[in-house]
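Tutorial handout. Part one gives the primary structure; part two gives the three-dimensional structure as tokens.
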Amino acid sequence: MRLHTLTIEAFGPFAGTEKVDFDRLSAGGLFLIHGPTGAGKTSVLDAVCFALYGSVPGARGKDRSPKSDHAPPDRLPRITLEFTVRGRRVRIERSPRWERPKKRGTGTRTENAKVVVQERLNGRWEGVTNRPDEAGQFVGDLLGLTLEQFCQTALLPQGDFARFLRAKSDERRDSLERIFNTRMFRDVEEWFKGHANRLRREVEAADERVRAVAGRIAEVGRSEAPGLPEELSAWAADLACVTAATARDAEAVAAGFTGAREAARAALAEGRELRARQERLAAARQELARLTEHTRWRADLESRLEAAERAESVLPFLGARDRRRVELDKAELAVTERWALVSGLVAAAGGTGPTRELLGAAERERRDELARLEGLRAEAERRRELGRSVTAVNQRLVDIGRRLEHQRELIASLPPRVERLAEELRRWRDQAVQTEAAETALAAAERRRDAAAEHERLGRELAAALERQSAAVDSAQAARDRALDLRERRIAHMAAELAAGLVDGEPCTVCGSVEHPSPALASAEGLVSAEEERRAQAAADTAAARRTEAENEVVALRERRAAAAERAEGRTPEAARAEVAAHAEALAEVRAAAGEAQRVQEELERAEEDLERARGLEGDLVRQESEATVRRDADLREHDRLTALLDRARGEDAGLRERIARLGGEAEELRAAAEAVVDRDRAAEELRTAAAEAERACSEARFADEAQVWEAALEERERRSLRERARSFDDRLAAARAALADPDLVSAEERPVPDLDALTAAAEAASVAADRAVSWRDMLAGRARRLTDLRVELGRCLAGSEPVLRRYAVAEGLRGLTAGTSPDNADNMRLSAYVLAARLEQVVAAANDRLVTMSDGRYELRYTVDKAAGDGRARSAGGLGMRVVDAWTGVERDPATLSGGETFFSSLALALGLGDVASAEAGGADMDTLFVDEGFGTLDEDTLEEVLDVLDRLRDGGRAVGVVSHVADLRQRVSTRLRVVKTAAGSRVEHVG
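Part two.
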């Protein structure tokens, strides 16, 4: 990862906008960030972390908003970071959560955190995301590091590694867990502890279940449970067997009592059945005697029903006669009403009343007149059309007169206007002849402007190409270094690679032996396969090709930029654009004159056409006025003739339509009156026929007159009621006779009457005795079954507790082993400490590579499992110890005994080693920009020189190292510097060198 630029706005101590050019600082490989205490040197690194992760490291990240207190209240805090990682150019713009003043009123409003992530693709910035969660995921995937890991690998903070060097094992474990993300192994320890506790509770619960079942057995069997668990099974079996034998004896006793109860119940049921048959026979004799007394009533009921059936056949004829009489009355009333309406329309009929012939003649007279008047409807319509035509012609004559007056006014006003437009056209044509010269000058100016703009654009493209060339050179160098590294590792581990293919019993490809007592093993870095080496070489070749393409692109852009400068003829883009604007303005004026000439010419042509059109329209309008006058006079004469004809035809009515409507209404009234007379005559004939049929029906039904029919008639509901009463009487009579003939009832009369009270008392006594016996039997049987079930349940509980005990023993052993308290754990190390010990060994080895140089070969760190002085007395407190080996005295000692300067370069070496191991562990990107924020003031001159030599070697492969310090001596040793200036109005940055 290489940083390019950092822009800080209203952040931390920086009140304004400060820009840090890391490309300029990194040009020499080593640069210094210096300034007075509290100026904001570390805040520059905080800004880098905030841009990437939205937070700052350490306790500063838990403080309030990082907005600068020196900035105005409404100034937006913002960090913009541009960097390259794995060949991808990325820009992140991030703002923290902050309080701004309200635009209206008093108080503040909270602005949420915002972020914009962009990536440089195809020469322009493309948006990636503007959501904080997606931005965090994007940065994490791109760098492969968390905030803490980034701070350990790219930002080496002051004091942290000195504390790490002197820390206790537990504190060192917490730090390493955060860096290497091995919290899962401590979670495994906690899981084993919780799992053992859960199993212990399960063992206790299983024992409680066994005791609970034994208590229920003792309660059911009325026997005290033994105290030892191994005696419970035999005790429960004996108790169940004794109770089962007692229950079998009670079964025989209860059977005798239940048999006596069933016999008593059978005798009681038989006595009740005999008493019921005797009572039914007596009731049947009483019912037969009562029904015999009502035989006369039954005969009368039958006669009445028969007369009602005969009357029912006559009633429809009587109803039909009555309906015909009602219809005749309605017809007479209709004739009277119709005659009252038309009597004044019919000539006197000699007092005989209305007849069909009289009314028909009057109707035909009016129909004939209607036919004659219908023939005049067309004449009336033609008269109305002529009236409308005369009105339309009069309106047209008025319109023609108005238009004629307008055309005569135009003929008088247009000639002076034509002369004025002709003079104006000559003036504009004189100005428009310069158009071609202005267009030529503008085209030349535009070519120079385009060339100047192309020269400027190619300059930007050339700068971008130079950046891509630099990135391609870095990538090619990195790929080449990786390929060479993999090749060297493969050669160094060739013996281990051959050993991996050895098979017992088969000869070795090198020595030919079939025994392989000590095959070579790979180091912690692992083997490098031929495929990995080939892919690395292919990647290096590809990167070299991209480097060549980038260099060719730079050469081509430079040539194109020179050609564009020649075409621009020395003009800058601003001067060329101003020249084009001036020529364009001149051309616009000339073209405007040509446009005015064209407009005036068109206006002149329209005026001449308007004059000719007005003269032609004047003649047409005079002709149309004469023709319209002649047509109007003819229509008026025809209209007067038709008016006289229609006045004679309408008579005394208001009009022809009114007369036709009146005559049609009178004809319809006469037709309706005639139809009413016909309906009346037909109703009278139907009444005579219905009366004759009713008399015939009465005679056939053996009724003397109509009164006897109505007297005998009954409604259907009454007839149904009488039939049901007769049927009920017959059914009851038949049932009584059947009961008296039943041999079971007759035989029951011959037997003595049973004593039901005595039988009931005997049955109740037998039932009580049987219930007691059965209850005693059921109680013993239930107790036997309950004891059997509890015995089985006790067996299950005893069997289920054994696996729990075995699992608990295993879990408790693993808990002690992972916690470091088990005798089997010889080093008394916790599992998490054991895993981190391997990482710490790698860190110590990487740190010693630099510590030997910094200390001039005197000091070396050594990892140990022994407890330090502050690790406490717990058995598992150690496992992550460190000692310092002094080569001058050969004595190991605690890191706390080092001096201030020795502590500084030891912790710096430890920090660099930890950063290398953490970066490799996380699989993150290479850190091409590294910051060291430590106390260089504790070093003497020689040691400072050795530390700077180590830092200078970190630049290998294009890496840039930034040292954060206020030590004055470093300003003479490091020429490229970023100075942080502290003022009362806030800090600012300055680039030096």
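Part three, for discussion. The radius of gyration is 64 Å. The first helix runs from residue 22 to 25.
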